[in-house]
Amino acid sequence: MAGVVRFARRDRGSIIVLSLFLFLGILMVAGLAVDMAHFEERRTRMQATLDSAVLAAADINQALEPTDVVADYFERAGLDDSPVDVSVNEGLNFRSVQATTRVTVPTMFVRLVDVDQFSSPAGSTAEENIGNVEISLVLDVSGSMGDTGAGSSDTKIQLLRVAAGEFVDTMFDSIQAPGLPAGKLSMSLVPYNQQVALGSDLGGDFNFTIEHNRSHCADFTAADFGSAGISPTQLLKRAAHGDFRYSYSPPYFIECQQQADHDVLALGNSRSTLKTRINQLQDGGDTAIDVGMKWGVALLDPALRPLVDTRISEGKTDAALAGRPFDYGLDDALKVVVVMTDGQNTNTYAIRDQYKSGPSSLVKGKDNKYYYYYPPRSGTSDFYDTSANRWRSLSFIGGSYTVLDYADVWSLMSVPYFSTNYVKEATGSSSFASNAITRTSYGVKDDQLLAVCNAAKQQGVVVFAIGFEAPNEGRAVLQDCATADAYYYDAEGTTISDAFAGIASAINALRLTQ
């Protein structure tokens, strides 16, 4: 009996047994962690490969069979030991690719507790659906674009022509490829310097005031930049066709430079027509990014649809573009503005409304000479002859005269020239030009640019921006204008092509859903 009691009380070695069990538990937990890490690494790598593979396979322009594309991705990743099931659904303008597989990893440690492997399904789906895309290219054609590009023998306008042409090719290849229904892509070209000239054809479809018909540029108020659209019935103040900066006769610097290489091309869907117009771009003038952006956004706004319908009925716009610009917010309609500058906003000059048209103080005598007409005085010499610096009588100038309209005066001479050589000569006052001309400073124009950029972004328009060797001020305002930081591009020299290529790639990515 005593021996049994002693045996029961003997506890030597019990701690060792407990320690062995704890050690085995620790080893099992550590082994589980190693096995799980190994499995997760494999699963993550396989999922990433699967995602990339189906994105590439879903590309409508992909020449290889989707199954072959997925298999190639897995082979290159060293995962070709895992069978992948690929299913494809495609039509005339869409392709959907779904791929599924199973991640299976043998265990090294937890097999001690009869768990031989970890396994989990993996799958990914990508669809490319070529919906409708509307693009406005807002391109700086100011005088500095005639400077040589950095690291290149070509001017910046030449480099822009190449880059923008390549962009057009990429967009047509990916969105309006041969065989797809017509009308998937529309693209507007908005060249700008200190103004945007619509040209007589497009400008005739807007409701401009009728001071003259020499050009079709609009003078906007600050409030106009807070909205995205311009309706064809909206009354637009026609910019005076004149020179408000320099004292020359005839005018030297016309604010609205309407000529073929500056005119807007609205809602084009012909690759060749767009590229021809791009190749016609010439440099000259100052920089009004705000005005360029205002028109670029307006050409995407549904308020313009009646004008497009009218132009379709007149045979000026392809009938395949009926219904554009589409309403905002449609799932299958992407609206994009690409705005580019090599500078920054400069001051804008315009003439006050009361001096745009109406009877002026310049008269033409019957003898076909021009005189400053001074309000009748008490005597008979009421016409100031600037060539002789003296007043003349009515009989001296032929007995009759014609009062010129202000719009006609500005086609003959600049406002400062008229002010100095007629008003001041006759009256001694030099205030006419300062009273007649308005100036919008570059700071206000930056605010106007951001206002129209925000109006566009609030409607879901995607804004890309390129600073092409632009100064810090121009780069900063474009960065604020862009939809996101990643949608702003800096470019120098030939890298302008890289910027446009990056934007083209981003536009295509925006059309992909996962």
From TrEMBL:
It holds the Pfam family Tad. SUPFAM superfamilies: vWA-like. Residues 13-58 form the Putative Flp pilus-assembly TadG-like N-terminal domain. The keyword Calcium does not apply. Gene3D superfamilies: von Willebrand factor, type A domain. The chain crosses the membrane at residues 15-37. Keywords: Membrane, Transmembrane, Transmembrane helix. The keyword tRNA-binding does not apply. It comes from the Bacteria. This is Pilus assembly protein TadG-related protein.
